[in-house]
Design brief:
Blueprint (H helix, E strand, L loop, with lengths): L1 H17 L14 H6 L8 E3 L8 E3 L5 H20 L30 H6 L13
Antiparallel strand pairs: 1-2
Helix pairs in contact: 1-3
Protein name: Thioredoxin domain-containing protein
GO biological process, one term: response to endoplasmic reticulum stress
GO cellular component, one term: endoplasmic reticulum lumen
């Protein structure tokens, strides 16, 4: 597909830019036709954004550029964060509970001299760290 070949370098740029922030995948719809049918794919390339509700992904109809794709991914993240701040919940992919729930792992990871470098400095993830005095 010519359109798919044109998208490929932009898709790879977006994947690189979003690494560690949003996972980017691709499905060979010739080999895995049932997946395309399951999500209503009728033409190629089709981009779907699997946010909070994995059973009902959003169709991406924006620019077929790395910038357009990354903007859509970041807007989806922003929406998830706003929902959580507003108390609408939504589960994270790790299954962690919202703070104050009393069950599951804590959302805030307690860091020490022994764990800071390994968790923060040695990670490709973005961290926000609060330095506090009890």
């Amino acid at each position: 597909c010519g359109h798919c070949q044109n998208l490929a370098p932009e898709w790879k740029k977006a994947a690189f830019a979003l690494k560690g922030i949003v996972k980017v995948g691709a499905v060979d719809a010739d080999k895995h036709q049932s997946l395309g049918g399951q999500y209503g794919v009728q033409g190629f390339p089709t981009i779907k954004l699997f946010g909070i509700n994995k059973n009902k992904p959003d169709d991406y109809n924006g620019a077929r550029s790395a910038q357009g794709i990354t903007d859509a991914a970041l807007n989806s993240l922003r929406s998830i964060v706003q929902d959580r701040l507003g108390g609408k919940g939504g589960s994270s992919s790790s299954g962690k509970k919202s703070s104050g729930s009393g069950s599951g792992q804590k959302d805030v990871i307690e860091l020490t001299d022994d764990t800071f470098d390994e968790n923060v400095i040695g990670s490709s993830d973005i961290w926000m760290v609060e330095f506090y005095a009890p």
